[in-house]
Write a structure and sequence with these properties.
This protein has 15 helices and ten strands. The N and C termini lie far apart (82 Å). It has a three-stranded antiparallel β-sheet with strand order 1-2-3, with helices on one face. It has a three-stranded antiparallel β-sheet with strand order 6-7-8. The protein has a two-stranded antiparallel ribbon with strand order 4-5. The protein is globular and about 105 Å long. It is α+β, with helices and mostly antiparallel strands. It is 45% helix and 15% strand.
Length: 417
């Protein structure tokens, strides 16, 4: 794919700049798309070689910046159409680029009918949640949207609220499991999001189809998959690692420890400020749920917090943090083999891996809850600190190790002399 800029007419006093996108080559049928940018200049200001406005002309930097933004957006739309939606990119770009707000002309948004395409309403739903929901939630909503786009394919206009029934559900679940290759738990999550959206759409009068209320049940696809928590000895080994000369690992390790000692998510740890800690308590509003929680500062926690006197914590993506944690776990000798189990439909997917390979940011939250219960804290106390309102979701975080279970069972089932 090549995106280039040309003048519409070189022989006039003023002319517009036209975006031209070509896909294919001389041996394969070349496809061409032309879109007006809305930018008008004098032909003498145009550098044909650079395909930009010459720097010595008024407004050159602003115009060239706009052209750069257009080129970047075209590339993003092209990749999204090809890799995610798996549709022909040029028609998609033709439809979506004018809506993107990068062209120097008014954005024409067609009036949306309340009985219109479901995907249009779903996009509106996602936009309406951006100001209230966490970025991670918006990302999941968007993934649900993308799956529905791919599932419906070129039948987008025929995908209406009236077509959502048990047959639609069966076909969509089959797509999620076998085409998208998602595990049961992930399928359940997307079904929940879709049902939440359908409630939202019904409340706003977009449809009167009530059949969806008995469909898209997340609980039917929830499985008790393998997750891990660290033992206290493993946690101390990680804390005692000498990472003095490796700040990239040291800082991520410290964030992980704070999370293990508080039950806080990584995003909440990174957002801590000096005023968050007063009178021996951490008080925050959780980013994901907006709930207010209070967490006592224990001596082990204080020792780590002292390493951040200015409360300047590293901000990095979950992906990078997880990669660093796996390296930290390997150095700490977390090499015992664990079986990771997922389900796809009725198929069990099992994998044996060293424990450090499944170490991630969320392990810290599980570790906090599990170790707190092992050390004798009451479940209600732990729930108040972790911010779980739902007992069912709280229990999913409890991951007792075999050694702990053996010790507890032996205490209970002692031989009587």
């Amino acid at each position: 794919m090549k995106a280039r800029f040309f003048l519409a007419d070189k022989n006039t006093t003023k002319t517009s700049i036209v975006l031209t996108i070509r896909e294919g080559n001389s041996r394969i049928r070349m496809q061409t798309l032309r879109i007006g940018t809305g930018i008008v200049i004098e032909p003498k200001a145009w550098d044909t070689t650079e395909e930009r406005v010459r720097r010595n002309f008024t407004g050159a930097s602003t115009t060239n910046r706009t052209l750069g933004e257009i080129a970047t957006k075209v590339e993003d739309l092209y990749n999204y159409a090809k890799k995610t939606l798996k549709v022909e990119p040029l028609p998609y770009i033709k439809e979506e680029l004018p809506k993107a707000g990068v062209l120097a002309r008014p954005v024409v948004v067609p009036k949306q009918e309340k009985s219109g395409v479901v995907l249009d309403a779903l996009n509106e739903f996602i936009e309406s949640r951006r100001s209230t929901d966490a970025k991670a939630s918006i990302k999941i909503y968007t993934t649900t949207y993308n799956h529905l786009c791919t599932f419906t394919g070129n039948k987008r206009s025929a995908f209406t609220f009236d077509t959502i029934n048990s047959k639609f559900q069966d076909k969509y679940i089959k797509y999620l499991l076998h085409t998208a290759q998602l595990t049961n738990n992930t399928v359940g999550k997307h079904l929940m999001i879709f049902k939440t959206f359908l409630h939202w759409a019904a409340d706003r009068g977009y449809h009167t189809n009530t059949e969806y209320k008995k469909l898209f049940k997340r609980t039917e696809y929830e499985e008790d998959t393998t997750t891990i928590a660290l033992t206290n000895d493993e946690l101390l080994t990680i804390e005692d690692l000498d990472l003095t000369n490796e700040p990239r690992l040291s800082k991520v390790r410290d964030l992980f420890l704070i999370s293990c000692y508080t039950g806080m998510r990584f995003s909440d740890v990174s957002s801590l400020k000096p005023h968050s800690v007063q009178d021996g308590m951490i008080r925050i509003n959780v980013i994901k749920t907006k709930n207010s929680v209070s967490i006592p500062v224990t001596p082990r926690l204080q020792r780590v917090l002292d390493r951040f006197p200015d409360f300047i914590f590293p901000r990095l993506s979950n992906q990078k943090a997880n990669a660093y944690l796996k390296e930290i776990g390997q150095r700490a000798g977390l090499n015992n083999i664990v079986e990771i189990v997922h389900f796809r439909g009725g198929e069990k997917i099992s994998q044996l891996v060293p424990k450090h390979e499944v170490l991630c940011t969320h392990t810290a939250r599980r570790t906090f809850i599990t170790l707190s219960l092992q050390m004798g804290l009451q479940p209600e106390t732990v729930r108040r600190v972790s911010g779980h309102k739902d007992l069912r979701s709280f229990q999913k975080y409890v991951k007792y190790e075999d050694e702990f279970l053996k010790t507890e069972m032996k205490k209970a089932w002692v031989l009587k002399s």
